[in-house]
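Following up on my earlier thread - several people asked me to post the actual chain instead of describing it. Fair enough. Here it is, all 619 residues.
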Amino acid sequence: MPGVVVFGRRWGIASDDFVFPGCFELFVRVVWWIGTMILYTYHKGHFDCGGRDVLHTYLIGLLVVLGLIILSLCAIVYVSAQGTIMNPGPRRSIPALVYLRAVLYIPELVWACLGAVWVSGDGHGCNPATVGAVITAVIASWIILLFTALGVVFVFDPLGNPRPQPAAMEPLGVRDLQSSEGNQFFSTARNLAVKVWENRLRLLCCCLPQDESNRAAFSSIAKLVSGFFSDTDMVPSDIAAGLALLHQEQDKMEQSRDPDVIVTHSPSSPLGEDLESELEKAVHWMQFAAAAYGWPLYIYSNLFTGPCKLSGDCCKSRAAEYEIVGGDHLGCHFSSILHTTGLQYRDFIYVSFHNQIYEIPFYVALDHKREAVLVAVRGTLSLKDVLTDLSAECENLPIEGVSGACYAHKGMCQAASYIYKKLINDGILNQAFSIAPEYKLVITGHSLGAGTASLLAILLRNSFPTLQCYSFSPPGGLLSKALADYSKDFVLSVVLGKDLVPRLSIPNMEDLKRRILKIVSNCNKPKYRILLQGCWYELFGGDPDDFPTEMDNRREEELSQPLLGEESLIVRHSSSYQSLASDDSPAHTATHLPLFLPGRILHILEDGPARRFVYGYAC
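Reply from S.P.:
Thanks for posting it. Predicted structure:
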C-alpha cells in the first residue's frame, strides 16, 4: 500500500510496517525498564554517594519515560498489525501514534544527557554496579537514538512529496490523469526520480571514473530502475510480501500439477546421440567458462587446496613470462586459469583482465584436445559488470543476411563489440589461426559472459562460418526473435533447473510486477503474518500456506472484473498494468521490446528424490 504520510511527506514505509521494528524495540524497552526497576528497588530509592539526588531523579524519570515509550510502542504494534495490505482503515491512527512516539524522544534525549552528566561528574564514590548500570542505560539511550536516526534516513523517500489525491467524486483508486496538470506532475516526478537514481549510482560507484561513457551508463540505468515501479504506489515490504506469496502459490500449483511426461530416447536413437554429444561438449567447455572468473571462483571451488596451490604462483615477478597477460598484476588470475583448464602457458594467445563498464575480461587459448581456438568471456564479478548487466535497453545490431528486426541487450552488445574489436583489429584471432589454421573457433562464457559470447559469435559468424558457441546460463533478455532464430545453428544455451538468470528480462520483470500487484491486492492476511510465514517457508520449507484471498467469497462472475484494490496500487495507468481479466488482452502493448535466449536451449533438470538429472532441448 502507499507509504505512510507524516511530517508533511510520504515515507518509504507503510502503516503496517511498524510491527517488527516496534516489537524489537518493545522487547529492549521492557528489559531496560525491568532492570532499572530492580536497581531502584534494590537501593530502595536511597543512594549513599555524591549526586544521589540527581541519580534519584534520573532513575525515577527514566522509569516514567520508559513506561510511556512502552505504552506508545504497544499501541503502535497493535494498530500496525490490524487490517490487510489493501485495507489500511483500521490503521488510520498510525500517524498520530508516530507523532506521539517522536515527541517522547525529547525527554529521552534530555534524560540521556542527564545520565551522562551524572556519570562524568557525580558518579565517583558510588557502588560500581550502580555506576555501571547507569552507564549502560546512557549508552543504550544513545544507541537507540542513533539507530532511530539511521532508520529515518533509510526510509526517507526523496520523492516523498504527498501525491495528489483523487477528487471526491471519483471512485476510490481511480485517478484522472488525462489532464495537462496530471501529465505535468508525473513528468516532473519522473525526471526527479531519474536524477535521484543517477545520484545514487554515482555515490555507489564513487570509485569509478566519472567520464562521459560512465555518466551515460548511469543515466541509462537510472531511467530503467526509476521507471520500473514508477506507475505503482508500493513500499519495499509490499514487494517482499508479494514475492513470498507468489513463491508459495507457484509451489502449490506445481504440486497439484500432473507429472510431466518424459519422453525417453534409446541410446541408439539419433536424437539421444545428439543430446549426449552436446552434453559432453558442454561439460568440456564449461570448465573454460568457469576458469575465466580467475582466482575467486577457483578458491571457492577448492577451499582447502586452492590457496596452497596459488600461493606459490601469486605475487611473483613474471613480467617477461606473462607478457600476454593484461590487468593481472599479481598473476593470481592467470595461475588459477592454468590450474582449472590444465593448459600450458604456451597454449594461450591473449589474456585480458581489464575491466570497465562495457569492457569485460576474456582470454584466447588453443585447446589441442578438441582442436579449437577458444575465446572464453568472464561473467559478472565486479560492480562494473553489474552496471553492464543493468544497461538492459535495446540496441540495434544489424547483421548481414538476417531479415527482421535485429537488436540486443545494450550492455552486452557493447561488451561484445569491445571484444570483437580487440580480436579483429589487434590481430589476435589471426595470430591464433596462424599457429593452428585447421582448428575451429569456439566461444564460451557464463552469465554476463554467456550473453556477450553469444553476441560475439553472431558478430563473427560471417567471418568464421564453422564457429560454435556454448553459452552457460545466458540472460533471458538478450536477443530479438530474428537474431535468436539466426543463432540456433551455432549457439547452444545451457540452462540448469530453475536458474534465475535465463529467465531475467524486462518483460518478465514487468509480468512479475503485475503478478505482485494482483496477489498483494487480493490477500486478506496482514502483512506481518505473510512475511513471518514466508520467511519460515524459505528457511525450513514445508507445505505452502493456503492464503485466503478477498476473492474467496465473491461470485464467480465477479472474478473477471478488475479488482479495486489492485487498481488502487496504480499511480498512473501504463501498458505494464493489466486487470485480472486482461492477461491476454490485445489492447495490452509491451513497454519494452521482447528479447529471447540465444540459440538452441539445453535444459537440465533434477528428477525426483534420487537426484537423477534429465535433460532435453527446450523450444
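The CA atoms of residues 148 and 154 lie 10 Å apart. That should answer part of your original question.
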